[in-house]
Amino acid sequence: MEEVCIVIPAFNPSDKLLTLIDSLNQKQLNNIIVINDGSNAIYNPIFTTLKNKNIILLEHEKNKGKGAALKTAFHYILNNPILNDIGIVTADADLQHIETDIVMMCDQLKKNPDHLHLGVRTFQKNIPWRSLIGNKLTQFFYQLFYRQNITDTQTGLRSIPRKLLPLLCNIHNNGYEFELSMLILAKKNNIICEQHPITTVYIENNNSSHFNPLIDSIKIYWVMFRYLASSLSSYIIDFLLFILFYHLLSNLFLSILLPRIISGSYNFLVNHRVVFKSNKKLRNTLQSYLLLSIFTIISSFYLIKLFMLCGLHIYISKIIADSVIYFFNFYVQRFFVFASKI
Fold it and tell me: Which of 14, 92, 332, 334 lies 20 to 30 Å from 143 when distance is taken between CA atoms?
């Protein structure tokens, strides 16, 4: 009989983890994997106790991050024929996910085993500020970039279909940003994402969380803002070359065309390999990118002329024109030029 496997990554856990395991066993959930993600030696007694319980314990010699811990469990499940599971439910080790919600997420996966299920929290006034602000910002930008409204992008309580596990193992992120990459991956593969309300629990103002508000937030937003970084660097190249060629040639069209060939080549390679990590054939992607570039060059030319007719300096006109074109380019590149399944 196919069941659901519970996966719990743990780094320097308290004895609350033991309480959680006992509660799950009482709910007849016995297919549990705990990953010791390189915890300090003083936490060994907790993991020693876990070995005597009805679980599978996987261990990292050093801390690799939550995403890496999850992928270790995914690899184990895929390579172990004994675990004939329809999918998994991930939960945190600090009792922020109560057993009744974990059971509910198992039931949801059994109802729709091909869907990705998220246990979403409600963010009220008593929520720690770093959790509230972080989730709201990520929700806003995720919806802007991926046209999908996820109310809790950073939830650790998820029901994941088995068919998604091999793709998740190919994600390069190893920290908390792995969870955002999972949502993006599911979106690209047209996997339906269901959201289910769960109890919002923050024990001791979330002090037990190992989430670093600065470092981990940068990693999470980098997943979405890679395009902005590549665009800014390529635009600096383009703008400086535009000034140079216009000074030498005094020809507006050539001063747009020649820098765009250089900066566009750089931008294409960075977007293809780093930003969107497209698995489409280079030739097919290049054809689409060239068509977009031709449209961009022509649009930029006429917009600059229009703004110059309004009395603006040529350099100011170019900045405004390229800013107008920027968002159009993002959506075309994201959803058409570099669109891929992983």
Answer: 92
**pLDDT tens-digit readout, 276-298:** 665 666 777 788 888 888 999 99
- DSSP bridge partners of 197: 120
Task: Tell me the C-alpha to C-alpha distance, in Å, between residue 34 and each of 66, 86, 207, 211, 260.
Answer: 12, 18, 21, 19, 52
CA distance 158 to 195: 9
Q: Which CATH class is domain 3-212?
A: alpha beta
pLDDT digits (tens, 9 = 90+) for 46-105: 999 998 888 999 999 999 999 999 999 999 999 987 666 789 999 998 888 889 999 999
Q: Do 104 and 198 touch, CB atoms closer than 8 A?
A: yes
Q: Of the candidates 322, 315, 251, 261, which has an alpha carbon nearest to the alpha carbon of residue 293?
A: 261
Let me know if 18 is exposed, middle or buried by CB neighbors in 10 A (0-12, 13-18, 19+): middle
Residues facing residue 85 across a β-bridge: 3
Which residue type is seen at 222? W
Cα separation of 136 and 152, whole Å?
A: 8
Total length of the chain: 342
Domain ranges for the chain, please list them.
3-212, 220-336
pLDDT tens-digit series, residues 143-188: 877 788 998 888 999 999 999 999 999 988 888 789 988 998 998 8
Could you tell me which of 227, 253, 226 has the C-alpha nearest to residue 242?
A: 253
CA distance 119 to 150: 11
The whole-angstrom separation of Cα 114 and Cα 147 is 21
Ramachandran angles phi, psi of 177, nearest 5°: -65, -15
Name the residue with higher pLDDT: 184 or 213. Answer: 184
| Cα–Cα dist 50/10, whole Å | 12
